[in-house]
Structure formats: C-alpha cells, structure tokens
Design goal:
Length: 363
C-alpha cells in the first residue's frame, strides 16, 4: 500500500489530543503524540464536568494541533487525511474536535475520517511492539465502557458482553471519590490497593460464575459505601484495605468473565487465541497481570498497548483513521457529532442478557 500520513484529533472527554501517524505495509509509526490533560480543572468536582471540558478543548486544541504538526515535521499539505473523534463522548468536546478536523480537511482539500472513539481503543493494541493480528478478543475497559468485543477486522466488531450498570473506570472513580483520594481515581485506587489487605473486607463479586460475559459493578460500589458508613471515620489503613478489597473483587470478576468470553469467542478462531485489553483501566498493572496469567493458562497470547495509549490519546484515532482510509472509507463534511455511537450497532439495539440497567456516561 501507499504510505498514508494522517492527523488524529481526540476531544471526547477530558484530554485534548492530536497526533500524526504514518501507516504503511510495515505497520504504523507515530510521528507525534500530544496530550493536554484537564485533570486539575475537574479535580475539585471529583469527575469530568462537561461544560468545563468543552471550554478547555476550545482553549487548548489550537496549541496542541500546532505542537503535533511541528513535532512530526509535516505541514497540512503533506497529510493524506484528517481523522477526528466524532463520538461517543461528551458532545460539547466532540463538536470542538470534529469541527477543527472538518475545517482543516476543508481548507487543505483532504479527506475527513470521522472516527468512533471506541474503534480507536479497539485498534490501539496494534500500536504495541508486537501488534495482534485479526481476529482478537478485546476487553475494552474505560471510564464510560466495559465490554467484550470480537474484533474480526477493521470495522467488523461483535459485542459479546457489556456492563449492565457502571463501567469499570467509573467504579474506580466513584470509589476514589468516596474515599477522598482525588481524580482521576483509577491510578490512585491502584496505588492505595498495593498498601492494603485484600481479605479484610468481604466484598461481593457481581455475576461471578453466571453464564455469559456481562458485567455489573453497582453492587460492589454500594458494598464499599456501606463499609464506609459503618466505619464512620477512615484511617489511611482503612482506605488502603478497602481499595485492596475492591481491586481483588474486580480481578476475580474480570478473570471469571474473561474465561467465559474466551469460550464464546472460540468459534471465531482457527488458530491460537489472542486476548487484548484496551482503554484507560487497561493501564492498571494488577489487571494486566491477572489477564496475562489467565491468557497463559488458556494458551492465548496477551497484548495490551503501552500505558500511554491505554488512556485517551490521538495516536489511536489517527491509526483508526488511517486504517479506514486505507480501505477506501472517508466521510462527508456533514457527518454529525454523536454522543452515543455503539461499536456494534446490532448488539446495542438488544439488551445485555442479564437485566436492563443504566449504561456508562459514554455508552
Ligand atoms: O480510556 P479513558 O482515558 O477515557 C474513556 O474513554 O473513558 O479511561 C479513563 C478511565 C478513568 O475512569 C480512570 O480512572 C481509569 O480509566 N484508569 C484506571 C487506571 N488508569 C486510568 N483505572 C484503574 N487503574 C488505573 N491504573
Ligand atoms: Zn477512551
């Protein structure tokens, strides 16, 4: 194939990001990768405030784009396409990035690729040193999503299971808020858990040993709230033990659900299975370790992207854009920003197999 040079733009949550990537027969090369986080602006609220996020994208995107182009040492005229996240996500932010992408595409006569943020995460493991071939079993765990997806090819995704209430990153963030640890909660809970006793609190493992590979985390979160109410005031050790107990429950649930997902996915293979983890929560080393051990036990290969490409970034958006462009896909400038945009539209139209529940904010 002719090498493709693509600019990626990501603004769907609380990271303003731009990246330039070259895709050729030798695979993708990331030429620049700029991420401007907004954690400090959202920290006082213990979560992402959509209005603050949208304004921060407006203020930060121009400089982020300039830095990405400079670092890659390319001009807009050199690009083969402009890829921007068009959803799902916080709509104000998505509109900022998508509109910027449309403007660049229009001004420089380049094709626009409207990328599904989840497709970015789904393909992000292909930025790893040893990229997985298709098909692979993807565990996508982020702040807004928690699902198993059979990734059969670029653009061909089958959702096998999903959460019936909270996303896993959301559960981590809520626990951190409950314990007053700060925001974003995932890395703080992970660090705190390393100091704690996972056996002190008997916390539930929702859906353990049940059929299928759906998830539920609301009961685990409620059990943590009950323990905090029972304790009254919390010592550092109480906090560490709760984090350790929570993470131990999460690991048990993930291993159990992943085992079932592997069995559901087996019909998709001919050869050796590949388990892939992506999304912000896949940056958790305890989770990566547990999944890797399970993969080894089942004779699967395990791949996760480097930590910086687990959380939101534009390199994965540029990659998804370049992959689509190489297959002849691009979008009209009238393409809308979508707050909701499932990867597998057919599966999203049917309910998860257990019980209906609230989906994550970005589902
Ligand atoms: O993929 P991402 O950056 O944004 C979404 O698309 O949602 O994921 C952010 C989520 C947050 O909930 C954050 O707390 C969680 O990923 N996260 C982690 C870790 N690092 C980030 N959760 C657990 N352990 C971590 N080390
Ligand atoms: Zn994300």
């Amino acid at each position: 194939m002719k090498p493709l040079l693509v600019l990626g733009i990501e603004t769907s949550c609380d990271e303003t990001a731009a990246a330039v990537l070259r895709l050729s027969d030798d695979g993708p090369v990331v030429l620049s990768d700029i991420v401007l986080g907004q954690a400090a602006a959202h920290a006082p609220f213990g979560g992402v405030v959509p209005e603050i996020a949208a304004r921060a994208h407006v203020e930060g995107l121009d400089a982020v784009l300039g830095a990405a182009m400079r670092e890659a040492r390319v001009g807009f005229a050199d690009l083969d396409g402009v890829a921007a996240t068009a959803g799902p996500g916080l709509i104000g932010g998505v509109m900022v990035g998508l509109l910027a992408g449309k403007a660049i595409a229009l001004a420089h006569g380049k094709p626009l690729i409207a990328v599904n943020h989840l497709e970015g995460h789904a393909l992000s493991p292909r930025l790893a040193e040893k990229p997985p071939a298709f098909p692979y079993l993807l565990l996508l765990v982020s702040g807004g999503h928690c699902q198993f997806v059979a990734v059969l090819d670029v653009g061909v995704y089958r959702r096998l299971g999903t959460t019936i209430d909270d996303a896993l990153g959301e559960a981590y963030d809520k626990l951190a808020k409950l314990l007053g640890l700060g925001f974003p909660g995932g890395p703080l809970v992970e660090r705190c858990a390393a100091e704690g006793d996972p056996a002190r609190f008997a916390l539930p493992r929702p859906l353990l040993h049940r059929d299928g590979c759906d998830f539920s985390f609301a009961g685990l979160k409620t059990a943590c709230v009950r323990e905090v109410e029972r304790l009254g005031s919390l010592t550092l050790q109480d906090r560490a033990d709760l984090c350790a107990g929570f993470q131990a429950a999460v690991l048990d649930v993930l291993a159990d659900r992943t085992r079932n997902a592997m069995m559901m996915f087996d019909p998709f293979w001919g050869a050796k299975g590949r388990l892939v983890a992506a999304g912000g929560v896949a940056a958790n080393l305890a989770i990566r370790g547990r999944l890797e051990a399970l993969a080894e036990e089942r004779g699967y290969d395990f791949v996760a992207p480097p930590l910086k490409w687990c959380t939101d970034n534009a390199a994965m958006i540029a990659l998804a854009g370049a992959e689509r462009l190489s297959r002849g896909f691009s979008d009209d400038l009238s393409v809308p920003a979508r707050p909701r945009w499932p990867l597998d539209e057919a599966a999203a139209a049917s309910r998860p197999s257990h019980k209906p529940g609230r989906k994550g904010a970005k589902a």
